[in-house]
Each structure stands twice: as structure tokens, then as C-alpha cells.
Amino acid sequence: MAMRFRKDIQGLRALAVLLVIVFHSNIATFSGGYVGVDVFFVISGYLITGLLLKELKDNQGIQFKSFYSKRIKRILPLSLVVTVTTLFIFSLILSPLETKELSKTGLMASVFSSNLWFSYLATSYFGSENHLNPLLHTWSLGVEEQFYLLWPAVLFLFVQAFGFRKVKFLIVTLIIISMFIFLTQFSNNVPQTFFSPHTRAWQFGFGALIHFLPQLKADYRYTSSAGVGTGLTLIVLTSLLIGPEFNSFAAYAIPPTLGAMMVIYFGEKNNAFSNILACRPLEFIGKISFSLYLWHWPVLVFFQFSNPSLSNSNLFLAYSIIALLSIGSFYFIEETFRHNSIIKKERTALLAGLSIIAAGCFASFSLYAFSKFELNSPAQKKIESVEFGGVNTGSCISKIKESELIVCEKGDVKSERTLVLFGDSKAQQWIPELSDIAATRGWKLLTVVKAGCPPVLMDVYLSFLGREYKECSIWKEKALKHIELESPDVIVMTHFGSYAPMVNGNKVKGNYDIWQKGINNLFERFFTFTPTVLYIPDNPMFPVDIPTCLSRKVGGDINIQADICGFSLSDMNSHHNVKKAINNIPFDNVIVMDLIENYCPNNFCPAVSNGEVRYSDHHHLSKQYMKEISPLIDEKLVRIFSNLPQ
After folding, report:
1. 262 and 202 within one domain
2. Do residue 344 and residue 401 come from a single domain?
């Protein structure tokens, strides 16, 4: 397919960027607007492959210096301006802890690898914990840049080895391999599959493949209209009908990708839908779409910083700022550098690119140093040093994507008195203190713990995976069989209290009956092989990350006030379904140790007690606080064991 400038592709760019913006604006109607990025990948695959194929055909080679210098002038200057501006503005409003983490993201964004960074951190693109990361959107730019970096060399080497005519075979093969990995691995490894370039390559491949499809005949006007109309329908309907809860359903990406491919392919011939896309307003938005994409997220995050629910007035103001910044950036940065005579030479452009990358890295390192300086105050040091209650116990935990059983022996491993700790990360936070208690009292402690997996006999949905947590169900059965073989004297059980049960493959929210049945069935099974269960209900969940909140609010004093970042119990998530189920347990030998009076005395839940931070995030207890409350469980267990037959 011959390459020419097409206004309808600019209109498709406009549609893509507008979908992303409305999605990031939390407009529920377009809960699937994030598919706009999928459309961008197809457009890039089509345009870049077209340029490279033309060079290969005309010149039997690729002018790599020319190719990369053009990409540098097109992308790097504005990327630097947005990254540095974002780092500076947010360093003024974020806490030192957040600033330190932002500087790391800024560094990775400067070298166009933030997608790999988010993949390494197992970041959830849809997670609430990331709604204030103003550089989260740079992940897609990283994927695009990695495509620009690798694809010319791959294409060139393939043509040299196998000839131009077999390029279609290369593209089809890459599509099949990449798509297979994407579809099969997505549900098991959402963050890595979502952010990785090799699992997104098939979408660029769809765009590249357009050049090898048969040319539409001139009299196929109605076919062209139907094709573009169908493609637009696939894109828009996907953005309307799906949401973040589909993030484990990899097939969500197929309709918008196929839709973008159809719009580009069938839009080659003049038709009514392509004419709409080519209209002046959409063409202009498409022209400034790169600026719009880069600026929109930092601006929206800035407005959401104090209130995640954007009001109509704030949205209007945010959109106005985004528009002004984007238009100004297009004319004064993008166009200026693209046509600048000073960096017209390829070598100069390449040196300018390296300088821009170095400047972004320098800004990120400077911000990191600044955040470390701020963290040097006594109070900030104390907050930064807060550790999860289960720190250094990772080797005793079955990981989320594993179903294999890991059992650790602690305390007096030769003792005939056996204590089992059974649960998820809420049980993990008790491991160090229970290990010390068991060693002191002469008991053997067995830890049977799996991340994100409640011991209750019910299937659950895990938001991190975006699907039913099948590994949990398999692990749970193995765990119960192992515990039964041990026939422990006491089982200590605790778990997170706000899992969503799964019934017949569907996620169910707020269902007390399912929790009640799952808890009772578990206890019935327990009492076939153990005499006593100590059940510790989950601690309340704060609406904010406690170390971050404290880091924002405290000064440099060593003493952190107890009421800072504290909340009324009524404002906390107290896991009402589980609490209700616990209150109706029909077994006398289940001892419930509810520490709510300790967590929230007089219905107020402090973030700090005795000068120590209680939580390591918004719902896990800190190592420091676990030491404070461990005497309570020690006393309870001593009483339980003393009442057991010798």
C-alpha cells in the first residue's frame, strides 16, 4: 500500500487520544478508554513500517542515522520538557517519600524504559495506588520507543538474509508469537504482560501487515465505508463496554486493534466515515495528539491530588490547561525542533538526543538527592524506616502465582506442642513475633501462608490478577491436607477481610452468606484434627497510605503526633461481612481475639502510638507496632495451651 499523508489517520489519532483522556478523567461512560493506546500502537506500526519498507525497496537499505535523528527531533525535546516540568511541580506537593519514588520513575522515563520499570515493580495500571503517579502514562511511550529502536534493525537484517518478498512472513510470524504470549500469559502475569514490548509487538504488527493486504479496487466505495465504520464501531464499543475489571481478559485488546487496522486499511479509499475523521477539528487534535498525550495525565493528577473525584469545574479548568499546554508545545517545541536548522545534521541531532536524555537523567538524580535531603530529618527518617510486620519472611510465603505449598518450622522445632499459623499476608505479619513467642514458650510453630489467599473455604477474585484466584484454591487444599497430617494443638488463623468471593465464575461483592458458609465449613474441617482455633479478625484498613500521609504532614521533630493521619473508625474499612460472620460462629472451641479496641481506642484509629508508626501501608501492620501488641497474643496462647490436655 503506497504511503501518503492521510488526514483520516490524524483523525484516528484524535479519537485515540480523546479516549485515553476521558478514561483518565474517570468518566464512567468510557471506562474502557484506555484502548486508545492500542490504537496508537497500530498507527505506529503502519506508519513506521511503511517508511522503512519504502527505503528498503528504493535504496536496498535503511538510513539509520536519518531515521533515528527524525525520531529524536520528533519525540525527545517535548518528552524532556514534560518530564522535567512534572518532576519540578510535583516535588513541591508530594511527600519526600513520594518524591523519591517519582525521581526513579523520572529516570526510567528519561531513557524511555518506564514500561520496564513498572513491569519490574509489578505495577497495576488500574490500581488505585498509582492514580497519583504523574508519569504512569509514559509506559506507552517506552513501548513505542523500544519498537522504533529495534524494528528497523530487525527488518533490515531479515531483508538482507531472506529478501524483501518474505517480509510478510516475518510480520505474520511475529504477530502469531507475540499474540500467543499476550493471550496465554496475560491472566497469569498482568503487569508484565501489559507493559512489555514483546507482548505488545503484535499490535504494531497488525499495523505493519496492512502494507501487504490486497489493494482495494476503486469501485469498492461501499466496502470501504463499511470497513471503516465497522472499525470505528469496534474501537468505540470496546471503550464503552469494558472497564478495568477486564484487565485479565487479554482478548479485550483484539477488537480495538483490529478496528484500528480496518480504519487504516479501508480508509485508503475515500468514504463517508474517513471524511468525518479527516474533518478539520479532528485533524488538528490528531496533529497535536502527542502533546495532548504527554500533558494530559500530569495535569489531571495535579487536580486529583487533593480530591480524586474531579468536579465539572475542575475538569473544565484541567482541560483548558491541557489544551493550552498542548497547542503551545506543538508550535513552540515540536515544530521548532523538527524544522530547526541548527540540528538539521544527523550527527548533531543524535548528539542533541543524547544530551536531552542526559538532561532528563540529571533532573531525576537531582530530585532524588533533594528527596534524600528532606528525608534526613528525625521524623522523616523514622517514617522511612517503617517496615512491614512480616519483613524478611518472604522465603516462608507461597507467592501469588504459585500453588506449591511452603511450610516453615519456627520456635522449638523438636517440641511436641505444635502451633500452626494459617492465612495470607495478614498472617505473614505475625510470623516474626509468633516465632519469638514459640521459641520462648517451647512450642513448634509451622507457618502455612500464601500471599493474597484467605484460608476461608470459598473461591475468591484477586484484583492484582484481575481474575479468579485459582492458585489459591489449589494451594488451600494442599495446605489443609498438610495441617491435618500435623494434627496441631492450636491453629492461629487470620486474613484480609475484604476479598470478593467468586460464585460460578462471577465476582460477588458484599455477600455475608458466602463468608459465613466459607468460615463455618473451614472450622468444621479443622475440628476433625485440631482441638482449638485462635481467630484474629483483620485490622481496619485506612483510606490512605500511612507512611505517605505522615511524610506529607510531619515536620522535622522526632515526635510524631498520634492524631496526625488518624481516622474515625466509621471512616475505616472494618470488613463488615467478615465481622458479621465471626459474630455468628457456632463453635465453642473457636476463640476470637478481636483487637479492635487496641487498633481504634474510643472509636479513633491513630496512625501512630508511643511514637511509632502503626501501619507499613494502608492496611498492613508495621514491625514496630507488631512488637507492641505481641504480648496480647502471647498471653492468649499461654492460656489456651495451659487448658489443653497434657
Report:
1. yes
2. no
Cβ atoms of 614 and 546 within 8 Å: the answer is yes
pTM: 0.87
Cα separation, 79 vs 74, in Å, equals: 9
Across 184-192, average pLDDT: 76
C-alpha 600/C-alpha 213 separation (Å) is 66
In a domain, 327, yes or no: yes
325 Cβ neighbours under 8 A, 6+ residues apart: 291, 295, 299
Q: At 420, which amino acid appears? A: V
Give residue 157's Cα distance to chain centre. 35
The boundaries of the domain holding residue 262 are 7-374
C-alpha span between 543 and 532 (Å, rounded): 34
What distance in Å separates the CA atoms of residue 553 and residue 566, rounded to the nearest whole number?
A: 12
CATH number at residue 411: 3.40.50
- Assess whether 403 and 365 both reside in one domain: no
H or E stretch covering 448: strand 444-450
Q: d(Cα 190, Cα 167) in Å, to the nearest integer?
A: 31
pLDDT in tens, 386-440: 999 999 998 999 998 889 999 999 999 999 999 999 999 999 999 999 999 999 9
**Angle (deg, nearest 10), helices 289-304 and 64-91:** 20
Q: Are residues 406 and 323 in the same domain?
A: no
**What's the number of domains the chain is made of?**
2
The set of cell numbers assigned to 364 is 531525576
End-to-end CA gap in the chain: 85
| pLDDT tops 60 at residue 557 | no
350, 405: one domain: no
Residue 103 · residue 364 · CB < 8 Å: yes
Claim to verify: residue 197 and residue 334 sit in the same structural domain: yes
Q: How many residues does the chain have?
A: 646
